[in-house]
Amino acid sequence: MNTNLLYGSIPLNLGSLKHLKIISVAENQLTGEPGVPQLRFLSSLFNCSSLESLVVTYNPKWNYARSLGNISYSSLSDFYAEGCQIKGPMPTTLDSLTTLTLLSLDHNNISGNLPPSLGGMRSLQRLFLHNNSIEGHIPYELCHTRNLGELSLGNNKISGLIPDCIGNLNHLQILLLNSNNLTSSIPGKIYLGTKSVGTFQATLELFQSLNYFNMSNNMLWDIPQTFGDLKGLEFLDLSYNNLSGAIPKYLETLKYLKYINLSFNQLSGEIPSEGPFVNFTPQSFLENRALCGKQNLEFHLARLVEHKNQRGFIYRKGNASIISGSAEELLGTKHRMISYHELRCATNDFCESNLLGEGSFGSVYKGILSDGTIVAVKVLNMQMEGASKSFDAECNVWRAIRHRNLVKVITSCSSPEVRALVLQYMSNGSLEKCLAISFWMMRWSHVGDFGLAKILANNKDATQTRTLGTLGYISPEYGHAGIVSTRGDVYSFGIMLLELIVRKKPTDEMFAEELSLRQWINASLADSVLEVVDIGLLKTEEGRDMNATEDIIFTIMEIGLRCSEDVPEKRMDIKDVVSQLMKIKLGLESRN
């Protein structure tokens, strides 16, 4: 029953369904019983002896975290309650959840310390508590969860040291401790694995499974030499710390390392150049001013190409384009880099339920970043011919233009697994979706797809050797000869206006052979224009002049026809289009 706009309380008599295995009511508006704690229904499920998975993700105001102690069912293995505004400290009775293998409580308001009772969850394999307000230190008892494979505590207020006993978690593959207040150096004993007597007695092999390590945005001082022993490491993020000294050469031996981020530290010396470092870009080492070497040199040269004047404009040498904005914003230093793993978490592993749309070269998913920001993630399908060029073209256009009607780029991800853009989320969906709803509902559109875009030269025309675009909206000269110009955009806009008026797509099955949407509307102008107009536009409110409404519809239809002329030179200038539409708008406002 996910994402169904359900509201009200969850019935307590669900507990009578003894053979129920899965309850999934994510992304609704479900709350608790009036006058009782919102998580009371959890205890009502005690008799669901077969219940294995409980998903209440993103339902509002579930309040008290201590009620989580009521989920000690005999068979429950997975509990998802992220984004439910759960507040207060975690219960001290978590050790009663002996069958739970996954506990996901991220993106809530949980406060207080991590309870030692976490150590009693002996079956726990995945623990997600990121994006809360958890304080204090990481309890030693957490090391008793010997089956733990993924631990996510990022974006909290956890302080102190990482306990040495973390090395005892021999199944741990992913460790996220980013954006906390962890201090001092990374404890080398975690990775050293010596057999000497002391607080850490795990062997080196116990930590060989770790492949994802994120401790960005803390207060760490150095990189321990024993990182070189983590032969399976694929992801390492130590950005935004106080790391100093040289980047250890032994990191070159990590042959599986696909991503590293050491940006915004105080590292010095030469950047390693062998092993995985051959593939790392300057983005991995930003703002370490004492670094030198091939990668850093390339980065500084790239910055020297651009010059900023006092007004905040950047002029590129050898290029006529002028880019508005600050240098930091354009270079991306204000936006944190994002990893493939973070994108997977944000989109629930690119779940189909989060799919917003698909295009020629990829798909767009709804996602929620670790800081709670809702985004649209545009993922490239690298198997498609021309996909890489489309991605590069889109990035070039995003870099070169700024406008209030363009979707904002938050960040990007380019890794061996994926190439993706993380964009501002538009809650109203695509233009196609809006066209099917209502002309009058459209208020403020944002362009968010530049996969086919080109920056035109001064002649304002270009030739495209391959026909790309949305069938029915591309201009005749583009479809036949590959001629690209702003007049082609006017044509597409005209077709869109006509579609708004008649609520029929240019690809409708009635438009076949010689008949097109434009021809059909043009033929109706003589005597039966209102017969093709969508009936919803002809409904008038009491006191509104029907004749005036028809005049407005007729004028917009005429603009659409003039914009979609077959001959480019006959099409309206877009400035004239804006002028006429503004007159219509002002006329409507004066009547209301």
UniProtKB/TrEMBL annotation:
Domain Protein kinase: residue ranges: 350-592
Q: Where does it live in the cell?
A: Membrane
Cellular component annotations (GO), alphabetically ordered: membrane
For whether the record's keyword set contains Transferase, the answer is: yes
User: Is the Transferase keyword given for this protein?
Assistant: yes
Top-level taxon of origin = Eukaryota
Do you know which InterPro entries this protein is assigned to? Kinase-like_dom_sf, Leu-rich_rpt, Leu-rich_rpt_typical-subtyp, LRR_dom_sf, Plant_receptor-like_S/T_kinase, Prot_kinase_dom, Protein_kinase_ATP_BS, Ser-Thr/Tyr_kinase_cat_dom
Q: Which GO terms describe its molecular function?
A: ATP binding; protein kinase activity
Which portions of this protein are annotated as coiled-coil regions?
A: none
Endpoints of the signal sequence:
none
Pfam families registered for this protein in UniProt: LRR_1, PK_Tyr_Ser-Thr, Pkinase
* Binding-site residues for ATP, renumbered to this chain: K378
Keyword entries, A-Z? ATP-binding, Glycoprotein, Kinase, Leucine-rich repeat, Membrane, Nucleotide-binding, Receptor, Repeat, Signal, Transferase, Transmembrane, Transmembrane helix
**Name of the featured protein:** Putative LRR receptor-like serine/threonine-protein kinase
Q: Record the organism.
A: Prunus yedoensis var. nudiflora
- Lineage of source species: Eukaryota, Viridiplantae, Streptophyta, Embryophyta, Tracheophyta
